[in-house]
Structure formats: structure tokens, C-alpha cells
Amino acid sequence: ASALPHSSFQSSSQSSASHSAFYAKLSRRDEAGGWSPMVTDQDPWLQVDLREQMEVTSVATQGRYDSSDWVSSYLLLYSDTGHIWKQYRHEDGFDGNVNSETVVQNKLPHPLKARFLRFVPLDWNPSGWMGLRVEVFGCSYKSYVADFDGRSSLLYRFNQKSMSTVKDVISLRFKSHQAEGVLLHGEGQRGDYITLELHHGRLDLYLNLGELFSSRRVPVTVGSLLDDQHWHSAHIERFNRQVNLTVDSHTQHFQTSGEGQSLEVDYELSFGGIPLPGKPGTFLRKNFHGCIENLYYNGINIIDLAKRRKPQIHSVGNVTFSCSPPQLVACTFLSSSSSFLSLPSAASPTGEFTVRFQFRTWNPDGLLLSVQLNPSPQKLELQISNCWLHLTLHSLGRQRSDVSAGRRVNDGLWHTVSLTSRSLQITLSLFLPLKTKRCFLSPAFQGCMQLISINDHLVNLSHVQQGLLGNYNELQFDTCNMKDRCLPNLCEHGARCSQTWSFFSCDCSGTGYSGATCHNSIYESSCETYKLSGSSSGFYFIDPDGSGPLGPTQVYCNMTEKKVWTVLPHNNTTPVKVQNSSPQKPHIMKFSYNASADQLRAIVSRSEQCQQEVVYNCRKRPLTYGSPLSWWLDRDGDKRSYWGGFLPGVQQCSCSLEENCMDMNYFCNCDADIDTWTNDTGILSYKDHLPVSQIVIGDTNRTGSQAVYHVGSLRCYGDKSIWNAASFYQESSYLYFPTLQAELASDISFYFKTSSPSGVFLENQGLKDFIRVELSSPTAVTFSFDVGNGPAVLSVKSHLPLNDRQWHYVRAERNVKEASLQVDQLPLRLLEAPADGHLRLRLSSQLFVGGTASQQRGFLGCIRSLMVNGLTFDLEERAKLTPGVSSGCPGYCSGSSNLCHNRGRCIEKSNGYICDCSQSAYGGATCNQEVSVSFDRESSVTYTFQEPFSVMQNRTSQATSAFTESRAREDVAFSFVTSQRPAMLLTVSTFSQQYITTILARNGSLQIWYHLQTDRSPDVFSPVPRNLADGRLHRIRIHRVGRNLYVQYTLSSDAELILIRSLTLGKVIRMESFDEEVVKAASKGFVGCLSSVQFNHVAPLKAALTNRGSSLITIRGPLVQSNCGALAESTSHILQGKTSDEGEPRKGSLGHDVITEVFKTNPS
């Protein structure tokens, strides 16, 4: 910029001649030493014309020389023509100056190519004014450009009939006038094709290699808003079937359709369109309308060949070699509360009145147009309402006429609107007079508009900007400054992203995750954690890496008295008979599990021990004969020939390890090769090899040679992460780990116990950014971080000391939408992220656990079960090498023996421990005794909440409710035995006429009713269709977080329960808001046994027995404490068969019901 002439610098205004734009060159000191705008300038900017298109790599700024005037932050816009501008999207923003002399240089992560740059000040020195000197860094840019008018194309013809390639590299830049259009197309007779096209402003790539009978052509889609009349780059790299498609800075990797490795294209490739309408295989619509620049196909410069009229290139239609300037000029309505454009209007001489314009937006609601009519107060309004266009005529006497038209219009695409009045009638059949006073575009609309015409006269927006026409506020001219907040998609785990102008939200349906960005798994990480939460044996989904990428898988949790077994069956657990196999044609059986290889690896790694039984019965069938005749493949596909034990041996069976083989000359019983049935059964327990993925049996084709084998399920027990602990006994000591990978999202969870009043649990720092979790006082835990928006602090305070030498749970999470902090069962603390703030947490130092880099404010005490983003940190192993830290943690409550059950909390005592069962529905010394009560038809227990109780958590700020994740939460668990139907089991009611109720219907099936919105019908679910009024024990668990009532059903609302009044077990007296079927069940009451009832952290049945005189408890009818729950469970097991202590459920054994319902709700 220092060598540019005076005319290259322009500005919106200048405070005086000595403050003009020409003096805004870096380090310049003459005149006023920089540019400053007028104080009255509402939209100041400084513009630099680079005289030709350049590739810009960085920009630098200074304040005005020797003054108090500087800009502390700014936007950077760029343009080819100086008329249509685009904002450079720099996630971390552009930091300006802190004084007038220091040069601040900002490197662009992705270089931009433009001729014009515009600096738009956002913030400046509050004690001075705006002052700016600038420099631009980059290099010249060579451009080969072609202009396509929507009816033209370039054909690149091959020297031979067809071109077959195993590798392709195609690159181009394009600038489009339309949202649709073909950029590239080629196809071959064997079914290969490649097509690159714009569709709805996104770039679609269709690519097929040799798949002849493809019924459906599915594209790979990248990019968004690509019809903005600005340059975008596209780059395709293909090697065999592996493809990378990059649009601007967004890359998608995928594998092509078909089985071929090469792309075979016949005759030619077409660019800019498909010239022959009847061409076989054509499935695209429009040709490209716009400019293409620097088009390279496998190193060949297509536009250069066309420009030099080379014979390989054939031009169809009117292709020119300069890019025509865009004709459309847009304006952006920036604010939904204060933006407006007011324009004068009058009826035409013919008596017609017409308004036409184009708009694009993400918002589902907004007022587009308001016309005041004569006679007053008639008014015509055109608005977007619930994503549809809605036209309203307000007449005298408050009468209204309404009509809707169109389709969903908040999709970010341009839509054209035309309103015409003719002969006292307008389109959409609304009647109105012809005379109008003025046309007013409302502040409710937030988006872009262009081509605004009134009575067929196009509105000159430049005149509006110059103050020559109409009036406006909070508008940007010459640009559609629209951002796709779903690109890249910051919703995790495959969740769907939706957006408005200012926010994005994530739909977690079917993902198995919840939270603002679908970061948190809705499932426990292991069977061990399910048991700690009070669950019993049954099928469960577990997510072995929590919020990590692996996802949930279903397992059977066999919760015995001594161990908790995780059982993963495979596709063939029945015995398999093998005959007539040979080394040349062996019998091969592959085993597939209901989990991916990575999930299996995570489950095995997390477990304390795993094993898999292999039973091999043989007759004249040795396992080895000098070399292995049979073998199995481990989880990595490696060949293994040992058949038992926890240490991998070579060609050994269990009998050789136990020294009891029938013939001690052999390592396996079957190797004796005798003509009677014998057996080699072994337990494979070397974790790194499990599970078995394949078994190979050879050499059974001899007369009388047979083998029967059986490979059992993979069984694992224990969870190493739960009790992985370290003790810190020096304030200057700490453990260090690699830098946290936490740019966009992170969750940190752990348990601690201490007697110290304060101390840092963990800390990780960057150049400016940091993240820290600490005990800030004896009663408070603080989570703080800085991603560039200034320090954010969340604190949870307890009314009881946290340094009481007892275990306390902490979970801190931060994502691009919000941060949260949970301590024990205290209310969740939430802090919403600022809109358009910095997103990435940039850390560079090591992660310090139990201390800080400065070795100050270190933690004294124990930390266990530290997990970050689903990964467990091995504190014990690292502590072995660190002075001042020891592995494990002393105390009775510091081991994995599960001293307290069913949510019971282990409390350390000087000479032992006790179990605090106050948060548990169970009783007894270790919280494992069923609390059961027998009811008759008139019996009921009502628990009245002490104060209006809302399950909503406290928030530090409020956001638009439509885009804020609901925090409604219920966790309900109970057991029952009855033979009555219908029957009322449990009812929760609120002061606002909402209710949740669980009943048995007339057919005995379980029904769960959710009535969350009183103006709608309740949601009714029947997760168990069979008759449960069968005299046996059934356990029910229902869990809801926000819109999730987990598994396969959909609620119509995500509303919270507002002001919970009471919870009732058995017969319900007050039934004014209930539906008819619920009323019938409520009137019948409940006859039978209810046991271990839990609602969130309230145990109402237990409270009724232990606090009979409490004002919170109302008991009606006979109520008898009983052990019916324990007896029914025992009877249920006796009647239905037992499970083995180490195995999976036996065939035909159902056990008692474990119903963990996991539903997903729709937004209301």
C-alpha cells in the first residue's frame, strides 16, 4: 500500500483535509499522521484499491501518529469491483491497536484474492477517536478467466475415444449469479460419470466408478451460500476410489460408488454446462451462469487453451474471457430490533400499485413489508411467519384478512416476492384501495434484500445510502453479509444443525447424545457405572468413551453380588459341527459383534479383566500336527494357535497349562488323535488379543474325523477408570499430561476429597487462553477459562463444606454455545457463550493436574476417575514417577469394592465407614435393602414438595427460548408387583395443571403419560405391550433430559415441569386435569407391592416410612411395610431361571424386567 497513488485510498468521510484517507499509509507522519473519520459518521470505513487483483496474506494497522486515536478491532471486507463486498470470516476476529505507534499485523489463515480492501472500525480508544494507518502484504496473482452466460460451455475433447485415469486433480475458482448450474460433467459408456454442480447454493459432486445399475445418484455436498457473486475455490483430488473435495477451506473425504479403481470418460469433458439436452445419463438442469477462473484438469489449463483457440477446446455459445461485473446490489438488515428501510411510494398513473423484491434469510419469522393505506388506518403487512409467507390486511374495525403462500423461505436461498394491486384487487385475493402513503420495510426482518422495485421503478440503493432517497437504520449496503452458522457443522456426533441469523441449534435425535452441541452421551460408560446408579441386570447401551467419537453399543450387564460382568455376544454362540475340511479348504467361521472394532477395543481396555471361552470337542481331529491345523484370529486379524490362558503361548491348550492332559506327550487332548470324543476347553484371557474374530478348522476329511466347537461371548468385568486415583501431599507437586485437545468442546469430570480450604485441580494454559478448575474456597468449586472473549467464570457454592474428607463429584464442560459446572447434586451452573465471539480454546502448555505451572495454589488431597472428552487419565501410573504424589488414595471409601449401593454415598469415619442412604430409595447399612410397601385399593402416599420445585437449572444469562437447550429433567425408578388392572402406579402433578403419570392399562400394559403443555393432548407411550399385572416383579426406569425421553418415542414438547406440587403413589384423589383413561386407573388405585421408588433425588416411599409425622407426607388408607419386593424378586428368579455368576442369561431365561426407556422429543 505504501507505493499506491492518492486515488487508491478512499473513505466514508474525513474529519479534515489533513486526516484524509491518503495519509493512512503505515508509518506515515506528515499532516495529521493518519486517517480519521468525521465524528458524525455512522458507518466509517477506509478503502484501499490495490490497482489489480492480488493475493493478500496479511494486513497491518497503526493508530494515528502521536495521538490518542486508534482502532482496537475492525472488520475486513474485500471486493473485485469496489461495489459488492464480502466480509473476510476470521474466527478469532481482527485485533487492532492498543496505542498509536505499535504495528499490529494479522496473518490471514486463508489468503484472499481481491483488488479492493475495506477496513471497517468496530472499537476504538474510548479516550480518543478512530485513527488508522494500514499496510497490505501479499503478491501478484495470475488469472485466466472465462465468463459463461447460462447457455454456454467449453468442451475439452480427448485425443482418443475415451480417457481412463486412476488419479485426477481438478481445481477452479468460480463466481456465480445463480444458485444452480453445472460446472463440470463427463461420463462413459460403462457407467462412469463425474459431475460438479451448484445446487441450492451448495456444491454437489457426483462420482461413480463402474457401478452400472445405480438406482439413486447421491452427491457429496460441500459449501453454502456460494451464489453470493464472490469468488469461491473448488479442488477435487481422486486416487482410485478415495476422494477429497475442498470448497474454500472446507474439505470432505469420501469413497466413490462402484467397484472400479479408474474413471473412464468418453470423448470429452464439458465445463460450464452440458451442451446436449438429450445426452444419455444427463440428470442435471441448468448450465452455469457466472465466471470460472484458473480451471485446471490434471495440470491442463483449460481456459488458456480456449483463449488461444487450441483444437482440443470446443466453445459452445457465448464464452468470453473477461468477467462481467455483477449487476445486482444487495443490502443487509443487520438487526432484528432496529434495522429498517423506509421508501416513498405512490400509485402509478394506471391505478396499479406493485412492489417487487428478492430476499434471503435464516429466520423463521420477520416482517418484510408494511404499507399504510388510505383511508387510514388500513394497513397491508407481508411477513414471514413460521417459515411461510403470510399476507395480512388490517381493515377498519380491527377486522383482518389473512392468507399464506409459498413454502419454507428461511432456507438461506434468494426468494422473489411480487405484490400487485389491480382493479381494487391484489394478488392472493385481498381487497384494498389503490392509494398508498409509503412503503416501509420493517425492523423485524433480518437478512438480505436486492432488486427492490416500486411500480416497476428499481430503487437505487446508492441514493438511499447517500441520503438522497428515503431513510434507513442499521443497514449495510453493497453486500449480503450473511453467515452460514452450520458451516462447519459444530453439532457433534452426526447431529443435524439448524440456524437463524444469530444462533444455531443442534437436533440430537437418534444420536445417543444430548446437550447444546450433542456432546454428552445419554448412556453410562460401563456396566459398573450402571450398577453404581442403582440398576440391576439387563440389556443396556453403554458408551465406552463417553463424549468421544465411538458411540454407544448394546451389551448385557450381569450384576452379580461379587462382580459386574459386561457380556457381548456374537453372531454364532451355538455349537458348530465340522466335517470334511482340509488344510486346502478349511472351515472358516467369522464372528461379528454388536460393536465396532474400536468400541470392542475401548471396552476391553477399560475393563479390569476380559475372557472368552473356547470349547473344542474332537474325534480323530488334532489341533496341531507339527504345525497348527486349526487356529483363531484375534481382534487385529493376527493368527493365534494357543487355546487357553492369560499369557499367549504357542500351540498350547488349557490342559498343558494345568498339567492334566490325557497324554502328557501332547500339549492338547485332541492332539492324541484317538477315535473317541475328547475335549479341549480353554478360557482366553489375554486382553490385547480379545475378542476372537475368526476361527479356522482344517483336516477333518479323514474317515471318522469330526470336530464340534463353540466360542462363547466376550465377557469383561470391572472398570479401571472409576478408582484410578492419585494422592497429592505436597502443595508444589503436580502431575503433567499432554496438552488438552479442547479447541471447540471439552468435558472434564473427576472425584476429589480433601481437608484443605483451596487448591487447583487442573490447569492448562496457552499464549492468552487458559482453562482451570479449582476449589476456590471450602464451599465453592470454580471453573474458569478464556477463549479470547475475556475470562469466563462459573462457580458452584455448597451450603456444606466440600473439604470434609469425603468424595465429591465435579463435571465441567465448555463448548461453542455454553459452559456448565456440576458439583455433586447441587444445581447445575450455566454460562452462555457470547454470540459471534471467539470459539477456539488455543492451549499450548502441558496439562497440570493437582497444581499449576507456577507451583502455587497446589491441591492437597485425592483425585480419582479423571476423564476428559471420554478418555481416562492414568493418574496411578503417572504418580509412580512423580515426587510428592502417590498412587491410589487411602481410606475405606477409596477402593472399587462398592461398599455402598444404589446411589448410597460412602462416608469416611476414623475407624471405618458408614453409608449415607439419604439420596437412595433403598435402606439398610449399605443401601441395598428394598424399601417395600403393600397397598390396597384405598391406599396412597403423597409427597408434597417443600417449596414450588422446578427442575430447571439456574442460568447466568437468557437466550431466545427457541434456540436454548431445555434443561427439564426427570429421573424416575421404581419396582412393583400386582395382579390388578387397570392400576395407578405413580403420579407427579404441578400447580400449572401439568402431570406425569405411570399406569397399567386395562390390558395390563405399561403406559407413561406426559402432559407438559395444557393446550395440547398428552403424549402416551406403551414401552411394554404385554401384560405386567402378572404377579411378578417388574423394575421400571424412566429418564428425561430436555427433549430426550430416551429411545424410540417422540414427545410433542420439551417443556419443563413448572412448580411441581406433589408426587402420589397409588390412588389419586384430585383428578381435575387428567384424561379419561388416567382417571379410570386413578380411581382403581393400586393393589400390590411398590418398592424402591425414586423421583430425581426424592425417595417418597422411604420418606413415608421414616417420616410419618412429616407435613410433607400424606398417607391415606392402609399402608403396611413389607418385604414383598425382595420376595417377589427372589420368586421371579426361581420361576424363570438363574443367570450364571460369570456369564450371560441362559436361553429362555427372561429374569425380571429392566426397562430403561430412552426416547427423543421434537421441539414444541
Automatic annotation (TrEMBL):
Record-annotated F5/8 type C domain positions: 1-139
UniProt KW rRNA-binding keyword: no
Residue span(s) of domain EGF-like: 482-519, 890-928
Subcellular location: Membrane
Membrane topology recorded in Swiss-Prot or TrEMBL: Single-pass type I membrane protein
Chain segments annotated as coiled-coil in the UniProt record: none
Disulfide feature: C862-C889
Keywords per UniProt: Disulfide bond, EGF-like domain, Membrane, Repeat, Signal, Transmembrane, Transmembrane helix
Cellular component annotations (GO), alphabetically ordered: membrane
Pfam family, one: F5_F8_type_C
Disulfide bond keyword on record: yes
Highest taxon above the source species: Eukaryota
Fibrinogen C-terminal domain sequence ranges: 518-570
Domain named Laminin G: residues: 145-323, 330-480, 724-889, 950-1124
NCBIfam families: GGGWT_bact (NF040941)
Family note: Belongs to the neurexin family.
Protein name (Swiss-Prot/TrEMBL): Contactin associated protein family member 5
Naturally occurring in which organism (per UniProt): Fundulus heteroclitus
